[in-house]
Amino acid sequence: MSVGAGVGVWRALGLVLERELLLSFRRPDQLLQPLVFFLIVTTLFPLGLSVQLSLLRDMAPGVLWVAALLASLLSLDSVFKSDADDGTLEQLALSGQGLVVIVVAKTLAHWLVSGAALVLLSPLVGTALAIPVSAFGTMLASLALGTLTLSWLGAIGAGLTVGVKRGNVILSLIVLPLAMPLLIFGAGATDRAISGTSSSGALYLLGALCVLTCTLAPFAASAALRITLE
Amino acid sequence: MFFHPFDFVSIDNMSSAAELRVDEVHVWRGDRHVLKGVTLHVRRGELLHVAGPNGAGKTTLLRVVSGLLPPESGAVTWNGVAIRHAREEYLQNLAYASHEPALKSDLTPLENLRFMVGLKRRVSHGELLASLQRTGVADCADLPARVLSAGQRRRVAMARVLASAASLWLLDEPYTNLDSAGSRLLSSLLEEHVAAGGLAVVVAHHRLELAGTRQFELDS
What are the boundaries of each domain within chain B? Predict the structure, then answer.
C-alpha cells in the first residue's frame, strides 16, 4: 500500500470515504433506488402469496436474501463507472495513494449507502414477511455480513467491467454465481433462527467469507482497475 | 487581493537535477504500433511541446509518461530512477491534466480540489481558493461543477494542477475550450512554472511560443 508524502493511508481513506458519501447524498435518487427496490420486492410477496402465515414464514429467508442481493447489485455498477467516465479515476490513480486504498474506501462507502441501509430497513421487511422478532438479531447480523461480502465481491466485478459498455449485465453474471454461498448460508441462518435452532454455524461461515473477501478483494479489484486504466 | 499559489507553495519536491527521460518507448494498441521507440528528455525550466497529427500517439505518450500505461519496452525515468521503481515519489512530483477536466459534476470546484489535491498533500482552504482565484474561477468556487461552462471547468482543472504544487506538469490539450483571456492566462501560468524551475510536457495542436519551449514532433 503506497502512501502519499504527507498524506497517510487513514487520512486518504477518510477523504475518499467522505467524497463518496457526499456524492451519494447529492444524488438521492441513486441512494434510494436499491432501498425502494428492496421494499417493493419484499412487499410484493406477501401480497402475491396466500394469506397463510406459515407459508410466508417458510419463504421469508429466501425472499429477503434474494431481494437484498439484487438490491445491492443495482448500485454496484456505479462504484467505479462514474469516476472512469468523467476522468476522476485517472486522477485518483495518480494521486500517489495506492489503488487499494481507493478501492477500500469506495467499497466501504458503497456498503454504507446500500448494504447497511438495507440492514437497517430489514426489520420492517421482516415484519411484513412474518419473521418473528426473536429471529431479527440473526437476520440483521447475517444481512450485515452478507451485504458487506457482496460489496467486496462486487468491487472485483465492478473493477473488471468498468471499461465495458452496459457492463452491469456482465457484472451480475460475474457476481451472482460468487454470491451463491452467501445466499445459502444467509438464508440458512435466518431460517434456523425462525425455527428456533442455533444459527451460529452459518453465521461463522458468513463471517469467514466476509474476512476472506475483505482481505483479498481490494487487491483483486485494484489489479482489475489498473488493467482497465491501461 | 490577488494570490499566486507559488507565493506560498514552493516547488520543494524539485531537486536541482530534476529531469524526465523517456528512452526507446514502444507501445502497441492491438495491432497498431503507436509509439515506435520514442526518446525524449525534459530538464527543469523546460517546456516540451508535443505536436503531431491525429492518431500519432500524443495522448498515449502522456499516459506512458504519467505511468498510467506501462510501455511494452523502453523506460521512463525521473531523476535517473525508473518511475515504476519510485512510483510514490514520482506521483508526488506529477500533476496530470487529461483532455477531460476530471471533475465530479455534483461537487463544487472547491470540493473537487479538496478531495483530489488533499490525497496528494495537506492543503489548506486558502491555498485551494487562491488557486481558483489565480485561474479566474473563484466566483464559482461554491457552485456545483455541472453548472460551469466547458471553459470554466478547464480553468478549475488548471487550478487543481496549480494547487498540487507539482514540479512536472503533463497537460493534454489544455487550451481546449478556453477563451482568449483563458489562453493567455494558461500561457502565463506555464511560463511562470517553467521560470520557477518546473518542467512541463504539453500536448497542444496550436503553436506554443513561450519562453523555455522545445518542440517535439510525433510522426503518425
Answer: 18-93+167-220, 102-166
Quote the CA–CA distance of B156 and B158 in Å, as a whole number.
5
Amino acid letter, B131: S
**Chain A residue with minimal CA distance to B97?**
A91
User: Above 0.95 for ipTM, yes or no?
Assistant: no
What pLDDT is stored for residue A57 in this prediction? Answer: 84
Give B129→chain A minimum CA distance, Å.
Answer: 18
Asked whether the whole model's pTM tops 0.95, one would answer no
Nearest-CB residue to B118 (from A15, A22, A86): A15
A14 — contact with chain B (CB < 8 Å)?
no
3-state helix, strand, coil in chain A (%, to 5): 85, 0, 15
Q: Is A97 an interface residue toward B (CB < 8 Å)?
A: yes
Q: What share of chain B is helix, strand, coil (3-state, %, to 5)?
A: 35, 25, 40
CB A178 within 8 Å of CB A153: yes
Q: CB distance A5–B89 less than 8 Å?
A: yes
**What is the side-by-side order of every strand in the sheet holding B73-78?**
B32-43, B19-29, B73-78, B81-82
Lay out the sheet containing B168-172: strands in order across.
Answer: B94-97, B168-172, B199-203, B46-51, B213-217
Are residues B76 and B22 in contact, defined by beta-carbon separation less than 8 angstroms? yes
Domain at B18-93+167-220: CATH architecture = 3-Layer(aba) Sandwich (3.40)
- Calpha distance B131→A25 (Å, rounded): 27
Q: Is the dihedral of CA A15, A20, A23, A25 positive or negative?
A: negative
Contacts of B207 (CB under 8 A, 6+ apart): B49
Please check whether residue B194 is in contact with residue B47, taking contact to mean a CB–CB distance below 8 angstroms: yes
In the predicted structure, residue B62 carries a pLDDT above the cut 90:
yes
- Render pLDDT for A96-138 as a digit per residue (tens, 0 to 9): 999 999 999 999 999 999 999 999 999 999 998 889 999 999 9
Whether B97 contacts B170, CB under 8 Å: yes
Give the domain ranges of chain A: 9-229
- The residue-averaged pLDDT of B188-211 equals 91
Q: Do B88 and A96 touch (CB under 8 A)?
A: yes
